[in-house]
Amino acid sequence: MSFFQVLKAEAKLLFTDIAIVLTIFGGVILYSFLYPQPYIHESVSELPITVVDYDNTQKSRDIIFKLDATPQVDVVRHDASYKDALDALVANKIKAIMVVPAHLQRDITLGKSPTIALGVDNSYFLIYGGVLEGALKTVMTEAASIKVANLLKDKMPMVGAKKAFSAYSFKELPLFNADNSYTEYVVPAVFILILQQTLLIGMGILGGGINERLTCKQDGYYTKAKVWQMILSRTLLFGTIFFFHMLYYFGFSFEFFEINHLAHIGELLAFGVLFLAASLGLGIFLGAVFNAREIATPAVLFSSLPLVFSVGFIWPKEAMPEFIQQLAMFFPSTPAMEGFLKLNQMGADLSMIGKNSMILTLQVFIYTILGYYIMKKRQKGFYGKI
Amino acid sequence: MFEAFSNAFVKELQEIKNSYYKLFVLTLFPFVCFTLVIAIFYKGVAYDMPVVYVDQDKSELSRTLLFHMQSSPTIKLLQECTTPQEASKFLQESKAYAVVIIPKHFKRDVLLKKQPQVTVMLNTQYILVGKILKAALLDVIGVSSAQVDFVHNLATTSTPIEAMERIAPLKLYNVPFFNTTKNYFYFLVTALLPSIWQIFIVIATLISFGSLFKEKREKEFFSTSYLELQILGKMFPYTLAFMFWGVVYMYFIYGTMGWSFYGSWSVMFFGMFVCVIAYQAMALLFFVTGFDYARSLSLGAVYTAPAFAFLGVTFPIYSMNAFALFWRDLLPISKLMELQISQANYGAPVWLELDKIESMALFWIVFVPVFIRFRQRLHV
């Protein structure tokens, strides 16, 4: 068979298989909209909390008003007692309780340093930090203004007082994802995994389907074509489709969800093509291994969550067992996520992600060669005796 | 009548026994996935996060501050850099997560009460590590600055207590409820295990029905009487298997890891049972769209794979948009997760949980179209 005939046969197989089309077109487009949905508002805001105000003075009301004004917190209730507030927490109406002690205003005036108590439901990841941020901002600002007032009483000029309320201060300079956007945190990395996983499912279904027919002694182009012709045509077909998917994800989707793209376009494409090549290699390999059409989807699906979390962008690598990191390196998504995050989110250049490129290059060769031999064996098995 | 159910149940057990694939999907695969996720987060607390620093003052005061940082369990001072530019390379290559810059004339400015600023460049691309490090650095800088203040204040006040009170004229005392040590194992694994679990329920159910129809043995398996009960019977071994895995992960989290469970186990497991069946019903709904094995798996994948993001455990539901909340309502696991948190942590009374269990039970309605389609397909 000529190469062109093989390419045509593979293309026909691909585009007439609803399961493949559903995954590599439907899935890719659907996920690009669905997955970022929870994070569209980007940062944590309006967490519902209740306040128990035992002081009930001008000062306490002022503090509560300022707390409510912070973006993180929404004071939705005022409870008369701590017990009522706890009941509201159990009924899942609020996420935190702030208790303003009695005699707050008097104690502040007397310089007695009263304490406001805050209890936050820490069952959820970002809620504690969110409420605390809002509350700290409110209390610290209040404390600072009291200090400045005290210094003014001690006859220090306003300009000096504003600076002298603490010995030195902390200035945060957030880099890369400056507004702490959750979209920016999760989406760029997960998009890479989605590209890899949908590609693997597609190639796995295709390869598995052919293997199934080989075992059933069903004749077809795949018994006559040379193995390299099939590998090349599959790489061309899936490679072209996913190259456009990649442009769509890194171009349109990033723009649409307002995600940073700091990388130089040439470098991004170069690394992207390398990532695609490694994924195609793994796809060839898995397509050769799976002996039925229906194995790819479950296998790829089961691996997804462990794969995302072993990369180290959510939970730091330093706190992860070594063997997990090594295991994860067998999948193109791991070095690719690391590399893309550095390139596109942190403005690194290609020379800084040499290790990741190296691993991907190794994967291209190892998986393609392994896939080649297994496909060859399967083809021989068709002609040989059982 | 009951025989229709039990016959199908026994036949399915045979099928599982005869297929390594089905057996592994029920045993080995969930075991491996659970173990991997548990291993990733096992430490639960991030210690010794690498930080680099630029000390432009090189005074006794700046060294004291760095010493305080080094003593924090969260921070590991990796190395000193000479310029901020050199230090920021460490961030770009993810070799360090933060850069601390102590300015020139730091000590002099403190003594002159000019309030110098310690600048911290944080890699906020890694939000979680960024948050952990920011809290630790704020703590160290706050405490060491207050120590200097204290000495300053002693000079002008009469008692040490008064000097202390001057530092913080108003204090905030904060307590985290439930997960008091802020352990990330608890945050993430308690939600990740159920998310993986629901993927397995849907996929295993689809494998069971899909392989039967693919091999064209459906007429052989199902007889004409009480078809609905036979479908439930065929499904039931998987219900039991995933109830088992549900009990296992709950036992692992709240039994062996020692997290407290304040609520009622029977309410929890009843909710879990309703949830397993709800997911199986959804799996069958995907299947009856065309009785096509591979296609239904694709639908099952789209449905279950992104569930974790919609649970609201990582990103709070209060900040989600209407569409995300709608999609979340389509996933029974989101209600089970609420039930798990409110039973384990709040120990909420049963009547507060009824609505969660009800909304999971609502998914059982999809059995109606499922049964109708099965009857049409098998010409019963």
Describe the structure.
The complex is a heterodimer of chains A (386) and B (380). The mean pLDDT of chain A is 89. Helix content of chain A is 65%, strand content 9%. Chain A folds into two domains: 3-39 and 182-383; 47-164, abc type-2 transporter like fold (3-Layer(aba) Sandwich). Chain A is elongated, with a radius of gyration of 29 Å. Chain A is built from 15 helices and five strands. In chain B, α1 packs across α2 and α9 (184-214) packs across α12 (265-288). A four-stranded mixed beta sheet of chain B has the order 2-1-3-4, with helices on both faces. Chain B folds into two domains: 2-42 and 183-378, no CATH class; 49-167, abc type-2 transporter like fold (3-Layer(aba) Sandwich), CATH 3.40.1710. With 380 residues, chain B is an alpha/beta fold. Chain B has helices at residues 2-18, 20-26, 28-41, 60-71, 84-92, 106-111, 127-156, 160-167, 184-214, 218-221, 227-256, 265-288, 293-304, 307-310, 322-329, 332-346, 350-361, 367-378; strands at residues 49-55, 75-80, 98-102, 117-123, 171-177. In chain B, 67% of the residues lie in helices and 8% in strands. Chains A and B meet through α2, β4, α6, α7 and β5 of A and α3, α5, α6, β4 and α7 of B.
